[in-house]
Amino acid sequence: MPAEHEQRTWGLWIDGGWRPAASGRTFAVENPKDASVLAEVAEGGATDIDAAVAAAQRAFDGWSETPPEARARVMAKAAEILRGRMDEFVRIEVDQTGRARRELAAQLGRLPEWYEYFGALARTHEDTVPPFNGPFLNYTRRVPLGVVGHVTPWNHPLLILTKKVAPSLAAGNSMVVKPSELAPLTPLLLGEVLRDAGLPDGVYNVVPGFGADAGAALTRHQGIRKIDLTGGTETGKTVASLAGRNLTRFAGELGGKAAMVAFPGVAPQAVVNAALFASFVATGQTCVQGSRLIVHRSIHDAVVEELVTRTRTLRLGDPQDLRTQVGPLVSERQRAIVEKYVRIGQEEGATLAVGGRRPEGAAYERGYWYLPTVFTGVRNDMRIAQEEIFGPVVCVMPFDDEEEAIALANGTEFGLAASVWTEDVRQAHRVAHRMQAGIVWINDHHRIDPASPWGGFKMSGIGRENGIAAYHEYTQIQNVIVNLSSAPFDWFADDGAMKRYS
Ligand code: NDP
């Protein structure tokens, strides 16, 4: 491990290197499994944001003028270096989030593909040449936005950041990142990877700190051309309105309340296999968590019985142990939110079928553990069915016909993702097309790829990550019109009929 981060105190990453915060302050990052202090991290504030934006502004001209194939080479090299340092990244990601190693090894193992995919897009992207009337050459260019800001959460710290960094770099932008203060370590460490890949100093900067301080300073900074936030819907509204004051572009990947809709004909065991993954992966702390399991009445009881039985068998344990299936929640605050909603669910009259408490035993005394929890008898108007809990809680609801299933699935303010489980291909597409959700899986859940657009309808967000849509959202269009005529430029000569606008 390079000496720079062997020490327990991590700096900010600005202009291609580590430095302390201007205030000299640090904050502690905990390991959620036992609440031990993992690292002290420099606490960035407005002065540090100014320094990071200035570094990114200085770096922008050089990087934006670097030919796309050279940018792609740096990105391919970054992918290679990241693969070489994967064990280190996975270990740190597990420690700072508490998520099971088996999940994060699989998730982080794919992240180099984002740099390869977007690097290739930058190389192959062609400017368009729309038709134009008369002796003109008319073409458009996609040019980078400038310095962009990324504000990211703690649940998938490196994946979510990668979804923003790769298209930003490919398009030629420079950037300042404000990661969650709960999990800033891998975003910081990525600075070394990008530097070693040959990225010019100042293109990628990270200022860890708190949302209301460093986050807000970045959001309202006049030198920022776009703010891309992944976080809760309320944070999205705050950040979007701050950004709006400067007409800064805003993209928000926000909250969700994903439905899994299971039709008759699907084996209850298959529904339960899917639900265990969709509901409890990341200890339920994902924006596309299958938090509402909407099951046809004909298979409802069999699904519930098996779901309850198998939920009891999920293996909680040390997140670094490859056999562990469910780790702790990320923080005391997150566990308090989950406990509050479990109380609300019981008060609302839902049936607590399994879980609903902290696990017992010495291994769970410290840290933020909570048992995977299933509520049955849930009505869609209950708060546990409407509000994002962001924890290992699934609400099971029966339905009688397709219309009712669609109404239940669409019946929240969110619209990020949904999954449809059926053996009937016509029904699969018919129902998928009526889901008010930006991502719909058929007989699958939570599958993600650098080429597949990701983002929400309704209150789940604005904009798209992944795919060419994300690349386009990190560019702006410049139109260049060339008059090829050698006739004299004289707008009085057209005999009274203004031809200039024809
Ligand atoms: P938060 O909304 O609490 O925070 C997200 C980021 O925004 C953090 O870095 C936070 O800083 C920062 N922030 C908070 N307030 C401000 C502010 N006023 N100005 C600027 N920045 C601010 O989300 P969580 O970190 O708790 O993550 C969970 C949420 O993220 C869930 O709602 C989840 O659904 C959503 N999410 C959405 C995804 C998607 O793809 N749609 C994917 C993953 C998560 P700080 O850490 O200091 O609070």
UniProtKB/TrEMBL annotation:
Domain Aldehyde dehydrogenase, chain residue ranges per copy: 18-480
The keyword Oxidoreductase is annotated on this UniProt entry: yes
Positions of the catalytic residues: E253
Coiled-coil spans in chain: none
InterPro entries registered for this protein in UniProt: Ald_DH/histidinol_DH, Ald_DH_C, Ald_DH_CS_GLU, Ald_DH_N, Aldehyde_DH_dom
Keyword Transcription listed: no
A Pfam family per the record: Aldedh
UniProt KW keywords: Oxidoreductase
Gene3D superfamilies referenced in this protein's UniProt entry, alphabetically: Aldehyde Dehydrogenase, Chain A, domain 1 (3.40.605.10), Aldehyde Dehydrogenase, Chain A, domain 2 (3.40.309.10)
Molecular-function GO terms, alphabetical: oxidoreductase activity, acting on the aldehyde or oxo group of donors, NAD or NADP as acceptor
Record family assignment: Belongs to the aldehyde dehydrogenase family.
Record protein name field: Acyl-CoA reductase-like NAD-dependent aldehyde dehydrogenase
